[in-house]
Amino acid sequence: MEDLKGIFLNELEHSQEKIFRICVSYTKDTEEAKDLFQEVLVNIWKSLPKFKGDSSLSTWIYRITINVSLRYKTNLIKNRFRFSRIKSISIESVSSQAEESPDEKKLKLLRACIRELNEVDKAVITLHLEELPYKEICLITGLKENTVAVRVKRIKEKLLNCIKAKL
After folding, report:
1. How far is CA 10 from CA 3, 4, 21, 50, 58, in A?
2. Which letter does DSSP use for residue 132 in this model?
3. Sign of the C-alpha dihedral, residues 125, 72, 141, 56?
4. What residues contact 11, with CB distance under 8 A and at least 6 apart?
5. How far, rounded to the nearest angstrom, does the alpha carbon of residue 115 sit from its chain's CA centroid?
6. Could you tell me where the DSSP H helices lie in 48-144?
7. How do residues 84-116 score in pLDDT, each as one tens digit?
8. Is residue 66 packed enough to be buried (19+ CB in 10 Å), middle (13-18) or exposed (0-12)?
9. What is the pLDDT of residue 79?
């Protein structure tokens, strides 16, 4: 078990940026993504004794990341529905919008369009953008490799149309 923890910490150090970017895809801002990232790490750590080695450690970590992100989003939607009457505008968010570079605007548009996708498509494209091979995406999502390839192509078209519509 001690060896597994060392391997886990090494793998986590190697993939923490990818995990965080996945979290960003399921949240509305960086602070919320940080909260989700922490929740993902806690869930991975708690689940570590259950790791059987049926897949690579990184695949297992990404699967947990996607599952926790989906649960987080579901719970967030439920909470937003309860408090939908309360609306507020953050002064920080208004001032930060004025300072965005063109690349940041494009990235923000892409993230907004990814958030509009259904959950399976969101998982597939997020993992694809993290440059995971189709075989690993298959292991994480449970889809067949051909299905992943077709979905990636269709999702790219959807995202391109979405971005064009928002420009």
Report:
1. 11, 10, 18, 18, 11
2. -
3. positive
4. 57, 58, 61
5. 9
6. 57-82, 91-97, 102-115, 119-129, 134-141
7. 443 443 434 444 445 667 778 888 899 899 999
8. buried
9. 55
Whether the pLDDT of residue 59 is over 80: the answer is yes
Residue 25 contacts residue 111 (beta carbons within 8 Å): yes
Tokens of 39: 């929740």
- Residue 60 pLDDT > 70, yes or no? yes
| b/e 18-50 (16+ beta carbons within 10 angstroms → b) | bbbebbbbbbeeeeebeebbebbbebbeeebee
Give the DSSP per-residue string, 7-62: HHHHHHHHHHHHHHHHHHHTSSSHHHHHHHHHHHHHHHHHHGGG--SSS-HHHHHH
pTM score, whole prediction: 0.71
